[in-house]
Amino acid sequence: MPGELCQDESNVDILTKFKTEFFYYSLDIVNETLENIFRSSRGLLTDLSLLTEERILFTKKKNEYALSKNEFSELAKWLPQIHLENLQTKYKVFAESYQALENTSSNQNIFQSLNKKDAVDPEDDENYDENTCSTSEKEHNPIKGFSSSMLHLLSSHGLMASFPNMYLAYKGLCTIPASSASAERTFSKLKIIKNRLRTTTQQDRLESLILLSSEKDIEIDLEKATDLLARSSDILSKQLLPS
User: Fold this and answer.
1) CA–CA distance, 93 with 235 (Å, rounded to integer)
2) Those residues with Cβ within 8 angstroms of residue 53's Cβ, 6 or more apart along the chain or in another chain
3) Is it the case that residue 1 has pLDDT exceeding 80?
4) pTM above 0.85, yes or no
5) With contact defined as beta carbons under 8 Å apart, do 150 and 170 qualify?
6) Contact in structure between 193 and 206 (CB atoms under 8 Å)
7) Alpha helices in 84-139 (DSSP H)
8) How far is the C-alpha of 92 from the C-alpha of 190, rounded, in Å?
9) Cα–Cα distance, 94 to 96 (Å, whole number)
10) What are the start and end residues of every segment in region (Disordered) (predicted)?
11) Which band of pLDDT confidence, cut at 50, 70 and 90, is reported for residue 126?
12) CA 197, 198, 200 angle in degrees (round to 5)?
């Protein structure tokens, strides 16, 4: 009959059509993109996971646990200064002595905090400011995250010579940014700096301008920078340097 559906025609509503043709399709693209991004670095991320506190405690708990020959191999490729066999050997030694080192470090921190409290008495010191004191203690606290605390632990106990590869591994781990926000901000700065009036800017000058704009927290000695700029040209030398 006219207007009736045949048996081989599917009656798909709008919501189902949206899910199948748009929503699920978008999810597949996102998953595939993430898979492509992390596929090449999966081995490195696996090696870095061995440096977490959970894996170190697991290695100490499981005495029979042995590292395979492939573990830390991607990390050694990323950091050529690391000796792979030495790192694999010292990793188990470090895992066995980790809790003892941590307890020693914690006792030292408690002792130092008690000395600070004894040295400054809020009732006796008229200039004592609780907010300022707590802020300064936080600023001087070197333990920020597990990786940085491991660096502090190895350096404070003089263990960099005993575990040089562990120190390099944690040092490399601390250089990995938590996100790509800083890089994206740099690209945003590029659009502002390289405008239509600066299309002929050379690459070296452009990189320097982006560095000055993006890394404003880096302290610069203006006197030294002025001297370097003045020595680059005779004209600038006459104008900037005292005769």
Assistant:
1) 62
2) 146
3) no
4) no
5) yes
6) yes
7) 84-119, 130-139
8) 47
9) 5
10) 118-140
11) very low
12) 120
Measured distance CA(168)–CA(74) in Å, rounded: 14
Phi and psi at residue 119, to the nearest 5°: -75, -30
Q: Scan for tokens 């690459």, then name that residue.
A: 203
The tokens for 94 are: 């470090």
If one counts every other C-beta atom within 10 angstroms of the C-beta of residue 163, the result is 22
**H or E element in which residue 53 lies:** helix 53-61
Alpha helices in 175-242 (DSSP H): 181-193, 203-214, 222-230, 234-240
DSSP string covering 146-163 = HHHHHHHHHHHTT-TTTS
Place of tokens 């509503």: 13
Query: Rounded to an integer, what distance in angstroms lies between the CA atom of residue 243 and that of residue 239?
Result: 9
Residue found by looking up tokens 């250089």 in the block: 175
Tens of pLDDT, residue by residue over 135-171, are: 443 344 333 478 888 888 888 888 888 899 999 999 8
The residue among 175, 176, 167, 152 whose CA lies nearest residue 87 is: 167
Total residues found in the chain within this entry: 243
Lookup result for tokens 């390289």: 194
